[in-house]
Amino acid sequence: MNVFSYLIPFVIALGGLIFFHELGHYLVARACGVKVLRFSIGFGPALWSRRFGRDGTEWVLAAVPLGGYVKMVDEREGPVAPEDLARAFNRQPVGKRMLIVVAGPLANLLLAIVLYAALYTVGVREPVARIDPPPESIAAQAGLQPGDRVMAVDGREVLSLPQLRWEVLAAALRRDAATLEVERAGERLTISLPLAGVVVDHGSDDVMVQLGLKPWRPPLEPVVGSVAPGSPAERAGIVPGMRVRAIEGKPIADWRDLVEIVRANPGKTLRFTLEQEGRTLEREVFAESADDGQGGTIGRIGVAVRPVPDEEFLVSVRYPPLQALNLALRQTWEVSAMSLRLFGRMLIGEASLKNLSGPLTIADYAGQTAKMGLEHYLRFVALVSISLGVLNLLPVPILDGGHLLYYSLEAVRGRPLSERAMEIGQQIGLALLMTLMAIALFNDVSRIWSSVSG
Fold first, then answer.
1. Would you state the pLDDT for residue 342?
2. Residues whose CB is less than 8 angstroms from the CB of residue 381 and which lie 6 or more positions away in sequence, other chains included
3. Ranges under pLDDT 50 in the chain
4. Rounded to the nearest 5 degrees, what angle is found at the Cα of 326, between the Cα atoms of 324 and 331?
5. Is the Cβ–Cβ distance between 265 and 272 less than 8 Å?
6. Could you tell me whether strands 224-227 and 303-305 are parallel, antiparallel, or unpaired per DSSP bridges?
7. pTM higher than 0.70, yes or no?
8. What is the per-residue pLDDT for 261?
9. Positions marked catalytic
10. What is the reported pLDDT for 419?
11. Which residues pair with 270 in a beta bridge?
């Protein structure tokens, strides 16, 4: 593995996200009349520094690029020249201080919106609007069938699954039924989809679920695409190109059948019936035990399916600027809400702490998405930007959200919290943050060890 192919995309992404975060603090501080002494990307010794602007703000690149900060004039941190007292952060009204604090996380959310909007405007690859309605669903009862491709809703053209979600939500808000044009076996059909009683309070995805407009998944031929070196499959003599006909005598028609059986049998030896160049072969394959990431155990043999050509289920879509902005706002909102829900579930024990990822996993994803192309990489950057913004808004002392909590209490009480109370809060917040970082790093190392040993 070329370390630089992962390190460089990671440093570019992380450095850019830190820069935008701190730029939010900086710009709003300047707009509020606060003097900024230093703008630093990273911590520790300075690798590069220059002074710019009428205030002589020092711009710094430091040795440890895992964060950044904007240092402002503040009487709590040392003596302040008389001419700068009016521009000290601590002398600003509480409303201005709240704006300066919240500006960093909001800058990350704004960056995600801009990236998503740019992608949607320039053009993105999205799943085609092909559906797979369950038998008892509203969609199935209306006459829709698995594999149908929706071409239009109420006369409005639909190219992709996200467009279908949007149009169905809009239709649900407008009337009691929607007219769908679908393509089935080369023919165009018109189907009326009843929408009466559909609840739209929870967003378009929930509407899709209520109607049974489940996304269609392309069939995956049970043909081995790749075999991991040193894996149980390789030791058993399985090679790319082999077709899996049966496992333990059970016919395998789709790759997902194979995955289901292997995952359900950790620690067991399974009898594979395979076909290679017209010959039928039998192989005994041990399904080694692996952590499923949720506290359970699954089987794994180290094979991957032969890729399905993108053209079969993806389509290139471009949106008008206003619609692209709408989609970007909705995407940012949904990812933010999902992040908060996941974090909340981890706090109450309903979701595993193994969901936490640290710098090693993020670097891995950065490298993988960079190899997949600019669109995938920018989507990854937008996702991490949202995560960074949401994390910093949490009401944890030492994070921006913790400071926002302090200032909110000050606004309600009419006076600031005591220095002692804030000091205790900072210590608790630091301990919590260090604990989360340790868990995330442990998860990173565990994933790497699992992949190397497996």
1. 73
2. 13, 16, 17, 115
3. 1, 202-204, 454
4. 90
5. no
6. antiparallel
7. no
8. 96
9. 22
10. 83
11. 285
